[in-house]
Amino acid sequence: MAVLAPPARPDRSVGGPPPGARLPALRHLGPNWYAAVMGTAIVPAAGAALPLEVPGLRAVWVAVWALSVIALAAVLTARAGHWLHHRDQARAHLLDPAVAPFHGCLAMALLAVGGGTLTVGRDVLGERAALAVDAVLFGAGTLLGLVIVVGIPYLMVVRHRPAAADASPVWLLPVVTPMVSAAVGPALVPYLPAGQGRTALLLGCYALFGLSLLATLMMLPLVFARLVTHGPLPLALTPALCLVLGPLGQSTTAVGRLADVAPSAVGAPYAGALAAFAVVYGVPVMGFALLWLALAAALVVRGARRGMRFSMTWWAFTFPVGTCVTGAAGLARHTGLAAFSWLAVGLFALLVTAWAVAGWGTVRGLLTGTLPGTPRVTAPEAAHAA
Known about the structure:
Helices cover 69% and strands 0% of the residues.
């Protein structure tokens, strides 16, 4: 797929280096790198949500949360350098339909790290500081997510103009960002004064939930139709099939957490109705998530047999699965069924395994210099996947 990038303008300053000459290692650093931050931040958040307590695990979650904070700072700095020194490539990423949807990962990374800060980071920072960090990251991530959920589809319509055969689960990344806000926001509700503030945040999160859910329902049929009519995705994009789990698990998580805090923000009968909705909505959606997980696993095994190699798309195995962990844990909390507790534990084991594999592959790729910087798929890869 060609990159629709404007020609680079030469640097006309006296003695100034041409574009791309400064910090060349950052030139191909795409927004997909925020997925590593998301995948790391979801591990402690999912671990803390598990309906079990094991001595010493809390310290592990704090350590992984700290790692996610470091990763966020590193990627934010690197991406700032990318925009500063490689503006032509940054604009090309926005105009490339294969890369532009990954800009949604920035908002989700901010939200995931913010949520983890209030959940486990409070053990280190204290409750007041953790609350302040979460509030800032929640506000920034939500506002940025709203810009992205409009801006990227706008570019798809007026500039990208992709064909039906180009549809992929990556298209879900911009539209799922408000759902992450809907799942993280409930933790802030109890800290607001009773009355208008709490109610506004609660209903605002439900609005974000509905916005993202309906947008996802528009995208999912395109993704499945592409699979049925054009066959499996190219090998490099095969792990992206797990991205479909993101809106499913995150929406189940959101309705469960919103129901938890609803009694303090709205009166009867709405609080009871929202608690019932968490179960009535969450159980069928979790069932569909397990169906999609099985389908995605079968296609991933197929891709592995055909030589699928590590790339940054492997981080798609982490955050979406983590949302299913928190979703299943929420259902266990609201239904009291041990089956959902065991489901959450089993999915968490899968999440930790995926995180370890993706993390090792990323570190090894960085040390050897073999890790590509962009989530692009070349023509030979697409042909090999057929």
